[in-house]
Amino acid sequence: MEIKQLLIFQTAAKELNFTRTAQILGYAQSSITANITALESELGVPLFERLGKRVTLTESGKKLLDYADDILNMTMEASEIVGSNSEPSGRLTICASETHCTYRLPEILKDFQEKYPKVELVFRPAVYEKEILSLISEGQIDVALLSMKALSSDSLIVKELREEKMALICSATNPLGSTTITSPDLSDQQLLLTEACDYRSAFEEKLLHHGIENKRRLELGDIEAIKQCVMADLGIALIPEIAVHKELREGRIKKIEWDGTHLDIMIQMFWHKNKWMSPALKAFIDVAQKHIQKT
User: Fold this and answer.
1) Does the pLDDT value for residue 85 go beyond 90?
2) What architecture does CATH give domain 1-84?
3) Alpha carbon distances (Å) from 227 to 166, 231, 254
4) What pLDDT was estimated at residue 215?
5) What is the rounded CA–CA span in Å between residue 142 and residue 122?
6) Comma-separated ranges of CATH 1.10.10.10 domains in the chain
7) pLDDT of the residue at 232
8) Which pLDDT tens digit goes with each residue over 226-270?
9) Helix (H, G, I), strand (E, B) or coil at 276
10) Distances (CA, A) of 72 to 4, 8, 66, 294
């Protein structure tokens, strides 16, 4: 049983897709299949059920995954601690919600890679916030950066960085952008909404608390689409203020002065409580915290 085989098995067990496993690890798919077959032959049990194109873990596979996680974590820890080079190195898998991916991560990643070139950063595309937290719990992500309501967890370390400032925005020609409004002023406006996330839920709860039930709603896939629709005067939206700094400065969008924009949404970093705090992970947390707290 080799470390390489355990790494391939661990990745395949969490992805349940040999093609995607090959892409993540940079191997040919035939190599993935061969290593898993060799591991099954050595152990004398099947680790995966192959039902057509569908792959699931057997009971033996589930048991081995617990050991593989422990062995690979200890191997990485030993390499970092015992090795003569104390400079952060190795692989770090990160994930972030859309706002951070677009408006914060580029600067963070640039700074991090300049300081720690020996760390291989793997970015996992964003999914829903709750899915990201599940992926951390399963060990598929090392650290995540999210904006959501303050969260406590038995399995995750949660580091609050600061409040995410929100902005209620409208087009440059919408009269709501020229005066301080009250909640009833929003009742006849079309709402431009993101897909499910904490700040959308908090915004809708705030409106209901003030007795506002907007029936005119348009759900859009991302913040950039929402901004374009706001500029086209299709409605109003509440999004993180960092996403509209440029448009506000240029006068293409106006900020609506409303006392309901405080939603207790926090910028937070998450990692598993049993995750070894490797030099690479600690370095990323420090760099990200420095950048976010200065903005």
Assistant:
1) no
2) Orthogonal Bundle (1.10)
3) 14, 6, 11
4) 76
5) 10
6) 1-84
7) 96
8) 999 999 999 999 999 999 999 999 999 999 988 777 888 999 999
9) coil
10) 10, 11, 10, 36
pLDDT at 255: 93
Separation between Cα atoms, residue 144 and residue 133, nearest integer Å: 8
List, by residue range, all CATH 3.40.190.10 domains of the chain: 166-265
In three-state secondary structure terms, 188 is coil
CB–CB of 269/288 below 8 Å? yes
Segment 125-146, tens digit of pLDDT: 766 777 888 888 878 889 999 9
Q: How far apart are CA 48 and CA 57, in angstroms?
A: 5
Distance CA 175, CA 177 (A): 5
* CATH annotation of 166-265: 3.40.190.10
- Taking CA atoms, 148 is separated from 60, 108, 164, 241, in Å, by 37, 20, 8, 14
Phi, psi of 89 (to 5 degrees): -155, -175
Which residue has tokens 């050595």? 42
Q: What is the pLDDT of residues 180-194, one digit of tens each?
A: 887 788 888 899 998
Question: What are the backbone dihedrals phi and psi of residue 97, each rounded to the nearest 5 degrees, phi first?
Answer: -75, 170
Question: How far is CA 83 from its chain centroid?
Answer: 31
- HSE-up of 179 (CA within 13 Å, CB side)? 8
Token code pair at residue 24: 């993540």
| pTM of this structure | 0.69
Q: Look up residue 212 and give its two tokens.
A: 């506002």
Q: Enter the tokens of residue 113.
A: 């890679």
Average pLDDT over residues 156-163: 92
What digits encode the pLDDT tens for the residues 94-132? 999 888 999 999 999 999 999 999 999 988 776 677 788
Residue carrying the six token digits 């598929």:
140
Burial level of 25, CB count in 10 A (0-12/13-18/19+)?
Answer: middle
